[in-house]
Amino acid sequence: MRAIDHNDIRDLDAMSIAVPYCNVIVVEKYWGHQVGATRLDAKYGAKVLTDLRELPKELKLIGCVA
Prior knowledge:
Helices cover 53% and strands 9% of the residues. The chain is mostly helical.
């Protein structure tokens, strides 16, 4: 585990809203691991991606794009 940088507070702030209220979120690998390790993704039903290239496929699966 790495030390949290002072700039990471912005990421934490955004994720405190995104994880419980969004169906799909894209985050850095570190944050994706942290959300998964704490099982917050399962608790709130959020799909957490660490690769932006996966987003179109996920949006298609949940019916957001054709």
